Amino acid sequence: MEINIKNNLPLDILFLIRIKANEFKNEGVHDINSYDIKDYLYSIKWKDVETKAMCDVIDDIMSLRFSEVFDYLKMKVIKEASTMKIDDFSDFIAK
């Protein structure tokens, strides 16, 4: 069965993403949530894909390692920080 991943994902797939986030929490990774996982999947794994077989979508989610999502989030923060001004970091700079 093919699903259109560019439209709203079926509820069972969204539930599976939440289960994966919960799995990460059980492994001690509390800062990666279901939104981060979904963002990673759409931005990296499914970037140029319109439709995908349901079994492949499930496999993409279940085989996901937290290090993949962490590396993606790290690069996202670096890109965002590169567009900011030095004044935006004043809270982090010791006086």
Automatic annotation (TrEMBL):
InterPro entries: Post-transcriptional_regulator (IPR025716). It holds the Pfam family Post_transc_reg. This is ComN-like post-transcriptional regulator. It comes from Massilimicrobiota timonensis.
